[in-house]
Specification:
The protein is of the alpha/beta class and about 325 residues long. It folds into 2 domains: about 240 residues, Rossmann fold (3-Layer(aba) Sandwich); about 50 residues. The chain has 11 helices and 11 strands. A 7-stranded mixed beta sheet has the order 2-3-4-1-5-6-9, with helices on both faces. Strands 7-8 form a two-stranded antiparallel ribbon. Strand 3 and strand 4 form a beta hairpin.
Length: about 325
């Protein structure tokens, strides 16, 4: 299975993967979440180092999108690939919204292909980004990106999951007995989505989309010495909320998609077998008919049936082997 994590700049994609990797490594679970190459390892190690210092990882420069690749799964079961794209907002909007793929840069086309080829899509939804944005154009484009995620025909056949990031800002409205119900997350999202877009009804209409709320890392508020404004920064030591629930949802999504893929492959194999068998029978019948015409009568029928069946079986077996 291929899993792709996407979302607007600042939604918390890097922080999520960094904290997930630390959670899996320190909680002694039966899961594995490990980088597939050294650049991915360095990328997340650097992010964790910055978070441990009480700061946020820096934003990616425009025109320099990065893809980090991870392996996820049980220690004794199937392993899946997770791909995370870290791109500037301008790049991400082009990747999502450009209809003519050939107009994208080579790097942007690679990311678009990764999204289209994924089996499971995780969208990091930053409601706080919508609410704080004073730039109408930016808020408008972010709204269209989320709409695209929900409505893109190529992605509707995939398993889709929306993760509400920075959920600590809204927990008072969602928590019931220490648990957050998916319906509460959907209700909250509909309440705070920009009113100038008709996205609220899509949250209800796209019933195959799952919703989770997490706190990738708990925060504290500090007063900036330069401008005197309050800023949210990581609370050290780092702590997350909702990771076990998210990992359980990921495992379930992977298992569901694996079963669907097996069922499709089995059906294709049956269809191929039936097609090959039918072709062999037809060709064998034709050859048998020719032999029957040559020899005539009972002898021709017997020899035609024998040789036609043998040749048809050989053709059928040969096709199945290939």
């Amino acid at each position: 299975m291929k899993i792709f994590i996407l979302g607007t700049a600042g939604a918390g994609k890097t922080v999520l993967l960094a904290m997930l990797s630390r959670h899996v490594a320190t909680k002694g679970t039966d899961l594995i979440l490990e980088p597939m190459d050294n650049s991915s390892r360095l990328y997340i190690d650097n992010a964790l180092s910055v978070l441990d210092s009480g700061e946020w990882p820096g934003s990616t420069l425009e025109g320099k999108p990065k893809i980090s690749r991870w392996r996820f799964g049980g220690r004794k079961t199937s392993r899946h690939e997770i791909e995370l794209v870290d791109a500037a907002g301008q790049d991400l909007r082009k990747i999502f919204l450009e209809e003519e793929v050939e107009k994208l840069t080579k790097d942007q086309q690679e990311i678009r292909a990764c999204i289209d080829g994924a089996d499971i899509l995780i969208y990091m939804l930053d409601l706080d980004g919508f609410l704080r944005s004073k730039d109408y154009a930016s808020s408008n484009e972010n709204a269209w990106i989320y709409t695209k995620f929900l409505t893109n025909p190529k992605w509707k056949t995939k398993r889709r999951l929306v993760v509400l990031s920075k959920a600590d800002l809204y927990f008072a409205e969602m928590v019931h007995g220490r648990k957050v119900a998916p319906r509460d997350v959907k209700k909250l999202i509909k309440r705070y989505l920009p009113k100038n877009h008709s996205m609220g009804h899509l949250v209800d209409e796209e019933k195959d989309v799952s919703y989770k709320a997490i706190i990738s890392v708990k925060v504290t508020t500090v007063i900036d010495k330069k401008d005197g404004a309050p800023h949210r920064v990581p609370k050290v030591p780092l702590e997350a909320v909702g990771m076990d629930d998210l990992l359980l949802e990921l495992k379930k999504a992977c298992n569901t998609q694996l079963e669907l893929k097996k069922a499709r492959n089995t059906q294709r194999s049956r269809d191929s077998h039936d097609s090959n068998l039918g072709g062999g029978v037809i060709i064998g019948g034709i050859i048998g008919g020719i032999i029957g015409v040559i020899f005539g009568g009972i002898i021709g029928g017997i020899f035609g049936g024998i040789f036609g069946g043998i040749i048809g079986g050989i053709i059928d077996t040969h096709k199945m082997d290939h």
